[in-house]
Batch of 2 targets.
Target 1
Amino acid sequence: MLCCMPGVAFVPALLVSWSSAAFIISYVIAVLAGHVEPLVPYISDTGTKPPESGVFGFMINISALLAAITMYIRYLLIEKQNESSHFVRSSCNMFTLCIGLMGCTGMGIVATFQELAVPSVHDIGALVAFGSGVVYITLQSVISYKSCPRWNTYFVCHIRMAISVISCFAFIPMIVFASKISMTKIDWTPGEKVKSY
């Protein structure tokens, strides 16, 4: 099986490196072009205008592919471990994979449909990406606990669950505040009225 091959661990590392580079490169281009303020812009704002929109879209789509490959490797790993331990139902593992792949699809939608070009599609993609991501990491945390102590340490499980809880708490205000605003442009001048839809 693929998950038993040495060297597969480079895929998650590549995912983190590539995704970080995607955000940093598009941010630097957007700031140098004067399209965003340097102090903490929204991630989507750094991929809205050309030329950074092309870089952002291309790199985030590759990140979505790498994330899908990483999730599939994790799925195979759990299936292989489950052959001897039977700590989780195979259908639960498959369901978790499907949720993760939904998140990757949402990520691809976010990358393809820019924030200001098609805002409703972009927002739906972001909701699917972040929502599925939170559910995926929570389910993976539960699976990790079920695999203890043979396949995981409780320390690693606690770290994963802490990340899941933080993600849940971050997701809720994101939904609340995102529903309160509608963006039609990035650059605002003092005294300019905001259009609301």
Target 2
Amino acid sequence: VIRAKAVSAKEVNSGNDTYGNPIKRIQYEIKQIKMFKGPDKDIEFIYTAPSTAVCGRLLDTGGKKEYLIAGKSEGNGKMHITLCDLVATWDSLSPTQKKSLNQRYQMGCECKISRCLSIPCFVSSSDECLWTDWAMEKNNVDGRQAKHYACIKRSDGSCAWYRGMAPPKQEFLDIEDP
């Protein structure tokens, strides 16, 4: 998960398919601003399919737009993204999302977020947070929970949604659910 700007793009061959046809990819050269989660090495290139029809992501080049990008890292300075990966302009993120990237999300790395697609839905263990934006907000993947909450681990090992601009207080972390 990185914050980055795309500075250039070019079409490259990335091998052949099972029939011997070349596989085309778009190679974005990027300027990484911050690594939130990933390898110790900076990401230099992001690869994606050449169009959205084959699950490619289009990034604005020129280095003006900043993006939050979650993809698959190869660990060698290369990353791959598809339509299924999170790619958002930095300016479109809520203040809570920006703050959580820097201070809060790492507190939830051991938690699982379970999607609720229709009501009723339940968690199967205490280390889960139930994400209900899709079911409660008419198939919205960028709803209230996504924009304003973080799933974090508490001192009793359970996970819970936390909302707030300040880091969670010890009292919140020490709460035990009945």
